[in-house]
Specification:
The chain has 163 residues and is mainly alpha-helical. It has five helices and two strands. Helix content is 73%, strand content 6%. Helix 1 packs antiparallel against helix 4.
Length: 163
Protein backbone atom coordinates (compact mmCIF):
# COMPACT_ATOMS: atom_id res chain seq x y z
CA UNK A 1 0.00 0.00 0.00
CA UNK A 2 2.77 2.43 0.95
CA UNK A 3 4.64 1.63 -2.26
CA UNK A 4 1.60 2.43 -4.45
CA UNK A 5 1.03 5.69 -2.53
CA UNK A 6 4.68 6.69 -3.11
CA UNK A 7 4.36 5.80 -6.80
CA UNK A 8 1.24 7.98 -7.02
CA UNK A 9 3.08 10.91 -5.38
CA UNK A 10 6.09 10.56 -7.68
CA UNK A 11 3.80 10.29 -10.71
CA UNK A 12 2.02 13.45 -9.61
CA UNK A 13 5.29 15.38 -9.41
CA UNK A 14 6.49 14.05 -12.78
CA UNK A 15 3.17 14.99 -14.44
CA UNK A 16 3.37 18.48 -12.91
CA UNK A 17 6.88 18.93 -14.29
CA UNK A 18 5.84 17.69 -17.73
CA UNK A 19 2.75 19.94 -17.78
CA UNK A 20 4.80 22.94 -16.65
CA UNK A 21 7.44 22.29 -19.30
CA UNK A 22 4.77 21.87 -22.00
CA UNK A 23 3.13 25.13 -20.91
CA UNK A 24 6.42 27.02 -21.18
CA UNK A 25 7.14 25.59 -24.64
CA UNK A 26 3.64 26.43 -25.87
CA UNK A 27 3.86 30.00 -24.56
CA UNK A 28 7.24 30.59 -26.21
CA UNK A 29 5.96 29.19 -29.53
CA UNK A 30 2.69 31.13 -29.31
CA UNK A 31 4.59 34.43 -29.26
CA UNK A 32 5.53 33.84 -32.91
CA UNK A 33 1.92 34.04 -34.10
CA UNK A 34 -0.70 36.76 -33.64
CA UNK A 35 -3.13 36.28 -30.79
CA UNK A 36 -6.88 36.51 -30.86
CA UNK A 37 -9.54 37.02 -28.25
CA UNK A 38 -10.48 33.34 -28.62
CA UNK A 39 -6.89 32.24 -27.89
CA UNK A 40 -6.92 34.33 -24.72
CA UNK A 41 -10.35 33.22 -23.48
CA UNK A 42 -10.26 29.49 -24.24
CA UNK A 43 -7.68 28.29 -21.64
CA UNK A 44 -9.72 29.40 -18.59
CA UNK A 45 -12.94 28.14 -20.20
CA UNK A 46 -11.32 24.78 -20.91
CA UNK A 47 -9.87 24.67 -17.43
CA UNK A 48 -13.26 25.48 -15.88
CA UNK A 49 -14.45 22.01 -16.88
CA UNK A 50 -12.23 20.79 -14.03
CA UNK A 51 -14.81 22.01 -11.53
CA UNK A 52 -16.69 18.78 -12.31
CA UNK A 53 -14.14 17.04 -10.06
CA UNK A 54 -15.89 18.54 -7.04
CA UNK A 55 -18.87 16.26 -7.72
CA UNK A 56 -16.76 13.42 -6.32
CA UNK A 57 -16.80 13.16 -2.51
CA UNK A 58 -13.04 12.41 -2.45
CA UNK A 59 -12.38 15.91 -3.85
CA UNK A 60 -14.44 17.78 -1.26
CA UNK A 61 -12.55 20.34 0.79
CA UNK A 62 -13.73 22.93 3.32
CA UNK A 63 -14.94 26.24 1.84
CA UNK A 64 -12.29 28.22 3.74
CA UNK A 65 -9.53 26.12 2.18
CA UNK A 66 -11.05 26.60 -1.28
CA UNK A 67 -11.28 30.37 -0.83
CA UNK A 68 -7.72 30.48 0.53
CA UNK A 69 -6.35 28.52 -2.45
CA UNK A 70 -8.27 30.69 -4.92
CA UNK A 71 -7.10 33.86 -3.15
CA UNK A 72 -3.48 32.72 -3.13
CA UNK A 73 -3.57 32.20 -6.89
CA UNK A 74 -5.38 35.50 -7.37
CA UNK A 75 -3.30 37.71 -5.08
CA UNK A 76 0.17 36.15 -5.27
CA UNK A 77 0.70 33.93 -8.31
CA UNK A 78 -1.22 35.97 -10.91
CA UNK A 79 0.71 39.17 -10.25
CA UNK A 80 4.06 38.27 -11.87
CA UNK A 81 2.26 36.92 -14.94
CA UNK A 82 0.12 40.05 -15.30
CA UNK A 83 3.11 42.38 -14.89
CA UNK A 84 5.31 40.59 -17.42
CA UNK A 85 2.73 39.79 -20.13
CA UNK A 86 2.61 42.56 -22.71
CA UNK A 87 1.10 42.85 -26.16
CA UNK A 88 1.92 44.94 -29.17
CA UNK A 89 0.23 45.74 -32.43
CA UNK A 90 2.09 44.91 -35.64
CA UNK A 91 0.19 46.17 -38.67
CA UNK A 92 -3.28 44.63 -38.26
CA UNK A 93 -2.35 41.87 -35.79
CA UNK A 94 -1.76 41.81 -32.06
CA UNK A 95 1.10 39.73 -30.64
CA UNK A 96 1.90 38.67 -27.10
CA UNK A 97 5.43 39.85 -26.39
CA UNK A 98 7.57 37.20 -24.78
CA UNK A 99 9.14 38.54 -21.62
CA UNK A 100 12.71 37.60 -20.85
CA UNK A 101 11.54 36.97 -17.30
CA UNK A 102 8.69 34.63 -18.37
CA UNK A 103 10.66 31.36 -18.20
CA UNK A 104 12.19 32.36 -14.85
CA UNK A 105 8.74 33.25 -13.46
CA UNK A 106 7.16 30.03 -14.72
CA UNK A 107 9.98 27.89 -13.30
CA UNK A 108 9.73 29.75 -9.97
CA UNK A 109 5.95 29.28 -9.85
CA UNK A 110 6.33 25.60 -10.70
CA UNK A 111 8.97 25.08 -8.00
CA UNK A 112 6.84 26.95 -5.44
CA UNK A 113 3.85 24.83 -6.41
CA UNK A 114 5.81 21.58 -6.10
CA UNK A 115 7.25 22.64 -2.74
CA UNK A 116 3.82 23.57 -1.37
CA UNK A 117 2.34 20.41 -2.90
CA UNK A 118 4.80 18.28 -0.94
CA UNK A 119 3.95 20.06 2.31
CA UNK A 120 0.18 19.97 1.82
CA UNK A 121 0.17 16.30 0.79
CA UNK A 122 1.34 15.35 4.28
CA UNK A 123 -1.98 16.49 5.74
CA UNK A 124 -4.50 15.90 2.93
CA UNK A 125 -5.37 13.12 0.54
CA UNK A 126 -3.95 13.26 -2.96
CA UNK A 127 -7.43 14.04 -4.32
CA UNK A 128 -7.92 16.97 -1.91
CA UNK A 129 -4.41 18.25 -2.69
CA UNK A 130 -5.26 18.16 -6.38
CA UNK A 131 -8.49 20.05 -5.72
CA UNK A 132 -6.64 22.77 -3.78
CA UNK A 133 -4.01 23.23 -6.46
CA UNK A 134 -6.63 23.27 -9.19
CA UNK A 135 -8.30 26.19 -7.38
CA UNK A 136 -4.94 27.91 -6.90
CA UNK A 137 -4.17 27.57 -10.63
CA UNK A 138 -7.64 28.74 -11.63
CA UNK A 139 -7.30 31.71 -9.29
CA UNK A 140 -4.04 32.52 -11.07
CA UNK A 141 -5.17 32.11 -14.68
CA UNK A 142 -8.45 34.07 -14.49
CA UNK A 143 -7.01 37.48 -13.48
CA UNK A 144 -4.04 36.97 -15.81
CA UNK A 145 -6.32 36.29 -18.76
CA UNK A 146 -8.67 39.14 -17.80
CA UNK A 147 -5.67 41.48 -17.88
CA UNK A 148 -4.72 40.08 -21.28
CA UNK A 149 -8.27 40.62 -22.56
CA UNK A 150 -8.19 44.21 -21.36
CA UNK A 151 -4.87 44.85 -23.12
CA UNK A 152 -6.03 43.09 -26.28
CA UNK A 153 -9.28 45.09 -26.46
CA UNK A 154 -7.37 48.33 -25.81
CA UNK A 155 -4.96 47.59 -28.67
CA UNK A 156 -7.71 46.41 -30.99
CA UNK A 157 -9.79 49.52 -30.33
CA UNK A 158 -6.73 51.73 -30.82
CA UNK A 159 -6.07 49.92 -34.09
CA UNK A 160 -9.68 50.33 -35.23
CA UNK A 161 -9.91 54.01 -34.31
CA UNK A 162 -6.57 54.93 -35.91
CA UNK A 163 -7.37 53.27 -39.25
Amino acid sequence: MLQSFTLLQVSSVVMSLLAGTALMILRVRAARRPTTLKKIIMPPIGMATGFVMFALPAMHIPWLWAISAWGTGLLIFAFPLIVTTRMERREHDIYVIRSKAFIFIMVSLLLARLTMHGMVEKYLSIAQTGALFFLLAFGMIVPWRLAMISEYVRLRNYTDSSA
